[in-house]
Structure formats: C-alpha cells, structure tokens
Specification:
α6 packs across α9 (234-259), α11 crosses α12 (338-351) and α18 runs antiparallel to α20 (524-546). It contains 21 helices and 15 strands. It is globular and about 85 Å long. The protein has helices at residues 3-20, 50-58, 62-73, 96-109, 139-157, 174-189, 195-203, 213-225, 234-259, 270-275, 278-288, 338-351, 369-379, 415-422, 424-431, 455-476, 484-487, 498-508, 510-520, 524-546, 558-582; strands spanning 35-36, 46-48, 79-85, 89-94, 123-127, 161-168, 266-269, 292-296, 312-316, 327-328, 356-362, 385-391, 394-398, 401-402, 440-443. The structure holds one RNA strand of 77 nucleotides.
Length: 591
RNA sequence: GGACCCGUAGCUCAACUGGAUAGAGCACUCGCCUUCUAAGCGAGAUGUUGCAGGUUCGAGUCCUGCCGGGUCCGCCA
C-alpha cells in the first residue's frame, strides 16, 4: 500500500461524487491531479493540486472547487482534516496510523518494498558499456557501466522486463590494428622481436594499442601455438589472430565488469550481424520505404576539413525524422558505415521484441543521438522508442589535485585502478551521485573519507548504526523476538513524535521515488533519497543524546522500544533496498 | 557556421518533471558525548535561479532570442 495513491484515490472519489451530484461538470480530466508531501511540513501531511487543475475546465474559481473537495474528503478514512491554502491547494492532515502502518508494510515486504507494477513487464533493452574490444576498461567506461547497470536494476524493480546488452564492435578497422599489435607482441613473446623494437614501432605509429595488456594474451598464444604464426604472411595470420585477440580482449572486459559486479545478459557481435546479411536487409527495407538515396552532402559549415571533396554516397533521409542532415550509409569505398550497422543492430533489437530501447553512451557521442533516434523511428515505423543517456566525463582528483592521464603512452587510469584504490561499492555509489548529463568529479581522497560530505560513507553509516542498535537490543530486551515478522506486529502508535512521523513519511516516499526515477531514467535520484533518509536517521539518533526518553532502547519500556526498533529496522530495509538497486552491499559495521 | 548538453548561495550540487517562503553539503561562528557508533547532531545567512521577453491561476522547470562554458560536426568506431 502506498499512502499517496490511497489519498489521491480518495480525492478523486470525492470529486467524482461531487460530479455525480452535479456540483462539478462531467468529463473532467483527472490525470494531472497529484497527491504529494508538501515541502513545508506546516502545510499538513499530504497536499493536492486538484482544485487548481480543475478550476479552468470547470469554469470556477480554484477556491470554490477546493471547498467542494474539502467538504467531501474531510470525512474520508484516515483523514483528520482538510483545509484550503494559498492559490487553492487542499492540505490534508492524516491519522498518524496512516504513516505508522507503513512500517509494518516495509517489514513484511523486506527489500521488495518499493517494487512496482509500473512497467507491466514491458520488455526494455538497456545497452551499456559496449566498449571496443581492444583493451581494458578505463574510468570513462566505469561511469557508463555503473549507470547502465543501476538503470537496468531500477527498471526491473519498477516492473519492466529488462535485458542488459553489450554491443561488440568487432567489425571495424580497429580490430585489425589490434591483430597487428597482437602479432608484434606474439613475436616479442617468442623472442623474435624485442621490447625496444615494439617501442620504436609504436613511436613511429606502426603499431596501435601500445599498452602492456596485450603481452599476457600474446604469451598465451605463443605457448598454445608455438611459432605457428611467425613465418606466415599477414594475409594468413590476420583473421585468426584477430579472432583470438577479440576473444581475449572480451574476456578481459568481462573480468573487469565482473569486478564491478556487472554481468550482461546478451553480447551481440557487430561482425555476426554483418556476416548474417542483417545490414543489407535492414538497409534494403529502408530503401523500400523510399528512405535511402544516393546524393552528395554539403560540407560542414564553418569548419571545413582540409581534404574535403564532394562525393556521391548512399544516404539515409535522417532529416525526415528530426536529424539535421541526411547521414551516409556507405563509405566511398562501398563498405557500410558504422551508422549503417548500428541501424541494423537496432533493427535487430526491435525485431527481438524491444520497442523500448535505452543506449548509454559516452560524452563524445552526443552528436550521434539524433541520427540514431531517426534511424530507430524509420526502421520501426515509429513504433520503437530509443532513449539515449549520455554520461558526461569523470574528472579524477586526489585531494583536490587533478589526476592526469595520458592515453597516448597507453597509460590511462583503468577501471581496475579505480576499484583497487577505493573498492567496488564506493565506485558504484559515487558514479551515481550525479545526473548522467552532468560532469562528475571523482576524488580518490574524498570518496574514502569518513564524513558527511562523502555520501557513500554517510548512508552506510546510517545502516551500520541501525545494526548496532540491534546488537544492543538483544541485551537490553532479553527474550524478545526481534525478527522482522515479530517487529511488524509492534504497536507503532507508540511512535508519535513528530520526528518519528517524519521518518515514516520519508519511508513512504520510497515507492514513488522508484517510480519517478524509473520513468525519468534517472537512478541518481535514489542516491539523493538515501542521503536524505540517512540524515533523518542520524538526526533521530542524536535526539537520544539530548533526551534519554528519545533513545531507541528503553529498558523499562519494552513495548515502546519494540516500536522504535521496528521503525529503525524499516529504515535499514529501505536503505538496503536502495543500495540493492545500486548493486552496493549495505554494511553492518563501520569500525 | 550548425547541433547537443550545461549555467541555481563564495565552492560542489538538489529541487518529487509546472506548485506554496528555491533547499542540502563544504567553508565560517557557537553549542551538544557517564548511557544505542560524536566517523554524528543542533543553531546561526547567504539568491535578480546567466540576461530579456513570452505561455498561465502559478515558471529554476515549458517556448523564443541573446550571453557564457563544454562536447561534437562526410568515408573513426
């Protein structure tokens, strides 16, 4: 049960009863009516905008509508009083039991409290990471990885049937460069080339992917195949070594992801799509719809490439679907562009039953969003929807000092470095403390600091404190059953302090926080919610320092203690539930 | 030149997607530990929400135009 939906229902019942009696016109649209916690507690428990929303269509003054609502809703179950405020808000004061009952709901449901039916098990495909299989994951990938994973968990909690997908870009020229670098490392492993040779070649730009990470894989290849590939021409070794390289890089990426607690459901290979003729088919279908033609693009204004020359190309009418210009499907050599195979890939997702798709991309792909959405509209006859979440850059600091990384030297801060430095859970939580489209500062010193301005610590500390209470409770209340089932039957009417009721209100916001975050595709809202919840818990805790009567454990008042234990236990459950969406383990102890 | 993102307190960020007097942390001052973790809590004040218009009962939020910052801009994925 959700307090807000219950109250909203009662407001709507009141309006419908009034309509039936002729006090309000029929056919009013009730969708925009809300029931929410007012920002200011003096405005009551729940506030509704119904009168203001209905005033215009009903051709009445907001306050007149409000009076009609108040007259009826005042007598509804659980409502003590209703009054009109400001421009026409109806403020409701609820029976404390309305909030108190939330506690037992939470204890009965456990971490499934907050699960919703919002999604109706609609299939949603969340594609994230999708890093090129050419090296280990780095910091930039970490944010998209965590974001996508948390978004997937969030949508699952909100009742969607989520598939987590990784798109493997294994068809372009970059994997051939990878194969060449692998071959070089392989010769090095056999002792036929030296590290100096490699450095020279890398310096001259003859070998890309100069990082050391290929060495291990090359060693594996050398011990498996001996010098089998050493005397052959590139034509002979390129394909097998390419396949070997991709496979070993993917293994490495999967291990990196596993270290972050991430496991995708589906890996889709670009090359497999191309080989299966899916690109040809997808483009042919668009051609049938008259959306493909051969033409010449105008050069970009203002910043013209030096080697610009007009060329006729196979183009997609992206501009008919909201993009700025039409986009090329074929390169001048006649091969497909990356965009063409990406269209085929999204067509493939759509055909697999995903009308709702979410792609998580890095900041440098911002300019690609419109064309991909245009592509999805075209290939799905406007039945598919693609939301693209762009994750902005992560700026690394150590105690306020920027951490520089040079990708050139093959030395960038890897995902592993991050995890080794601060731990998986800290990485995950911090990456979710900002909106995806805002840049994020990640300070190695700060994220491990034990203070209020480190949100991970602060939330975990609240959880640990609650567990600490329970460790003591066993001594203070010997023989009491402190299980969730038992606490769910505690007499919560003994928790009637205004701070305790406020705590319950916050707990009751959890389901709607989930829904709102899921609809907006914004997992970061959970981080802020948890932070606020933790702050309230810490505040309530400290009430006990000032006033012994407010301590959770009162040896001479077992009933009241049990009620308070039920309350704080439900806070712990909600925190655990939120951290669960983030893939973070709640801590029972911080010492 | 164009497209996309961002612009809120000295700094870092919120604001329940159009609601009431725009809120937190940091920094600064003062106060709170014989008892559940003081790694915490309480009190104290800061704003022309970049600027100018528009839409309506009501705008930080939506629309238009400027200003400033970032990212990107045919055959790289």
């Amino acid at each position: 049960m959700n307090v807000f939906t219950v109250i909203r229902k009662q407001v709507i019942d009141a309006i419908e009863a009034e309509v039936a009696d002729g006090g309000l016109p029929a056919d009013l649209k009730l969708d925009a009516i809300t029931a929410e916690l007012p920002r200011d507690a003096s405005h009551g428990d729940v506030s509704t905008n119904a009168a203001m929303v209905l005033a215009k269509p009903a051709k009445m003054k907001p306050r007149d509508v409000a009076e009609k609502i108040v007259a009826r809703v005042s007598y509804a179950d659980g409502i003590i009083s209703a009054d009109i405020a400001g421009p026409g808000f109806v403020n409701l004061r609820l029976e404390p039991s309305m909030w108190q009952s939330v506690v037992s709901d939470v204890l009965n449901l456990g971490v499934t409290y907050g699960d919703s039916e919002l999604g109706g098990q609609t299939p949603v495909n969340v594609e994230y990471v999708s890093a090129n299989p050419t090296g280990p994951l780095h910091v930039g990938h970490a944010r998209g990885a965590v974001f996508g994973d948390a978004l997937a968990a969030l949508l699952a909690k909100a009742g969607y049937a989520v598939t987590k997908e990784f798109y493997v870009n294994d068809a372009g020229a970059q994997v051939e460069s990878l194969a060449r670098a692998m071959h070089f490392r392989y010769l090095e492993a056999l002792g036929k080339k030296s590290a100096e040779d490699f450095a020279t070649a890398a310096e001259a730009g003859e070998v890309e992917y100069a990082g050391d990470y290929l060495k291990d894989a090359a060693g594996v290849l050398a011990s498996r195949d001996g010098d089998k590939w050493a005397g052959l021409s590139e034509d002979e070794w390129l394909v097998p070594l390419r396949n070997f390289s991709i496979a070993s890089m993917l293994d490495m990426i999967r291990e990196d992801l596993a270290a972050l607690g991430i496991a995708h459901d589906v890996f889709t290979s670009e090359r497999a799509l191309v080989d299966a003729g899916q690109v040809d088919r997808a483009i042919a279908d668009l051609e049938k719809d008259g959306l493909v033609y051969t033409g010449t693009l105008a050069p970009p204004k203002g910043k013209k490439p030096d080697d610009w020359e007009p060329r006729p190309q196979l183009l997609f009418k992206a501009s008919e679907f909201g993009d700025d210009i039409d986009r090329p499907f074929k390169k001048s050599d006649g091969s497909w562009t990356y965009f063409a195979s990406d269209v085929a890939y999204h067509r493939d997702k759509f055909d697999r039953g995903f009308a709702e798709m979410i792609d998580v991309w890095g900041a440098d792909h911002g300019g690609y969003v419109k064309r991909m959405q245009a592509g999805v509209k075209a290939l799905s006859s406007d039945k598919g929807a693609l939301d693209v979440k762009i994750c902005q850059l992560v700026k690394l600091f150590d105690n306020g000092e920027p951490v520089t990384m040079s990708k050139r030297a093959g030395k960038f801060v890897t995902l592993r470095d991050l995890i080794d430095a601060v731990g998986k859970d800290v990485v995950r939580f911090i990456m979710l403390t900002r909106k995806n489209d805002a840049p994020l500062d990640f300070d190695f010193a700060k994220v491990t600091e034990k203070s209020r301005d480190n949100p991970v610590f602060y939330v975990q500390y609240a959880h640990a404190r609650i567990h600490s209470v329970f460790r003591h409770a066993a001594e203070v209340l010997p023989g009491q059953d402190l299980s969730d089932d038992a606490l769910a039957t505690a007499d919560l009417s003994l928790c009637s302090d205004s701070d305790e009721l406020a705590m319950m209100r916050s707990i009751s916001l959890w389901p709607r926080t989930i829904d709102a975050a899921a609809v907006a595709h914004e997992p970061h809202r959970i981080a802020f919610y948890l932070y606020d919840l933790a702050a309230q818990l810490h505040a309530l805790w400290n009430r006990g320092n000032d006033d012994a009567e407010m301590r959770f454990l009162l040896p001479d008042q077992p009933e009241r203690s049990l009620a308070r234990l039920a309350l704080v236990r439900s806070v712990a459950v909600v925190i655990a539930s939120g951290l669960d969406v983030f893939g973070v383990k709640p801590l029972k102890e911080m010492r």
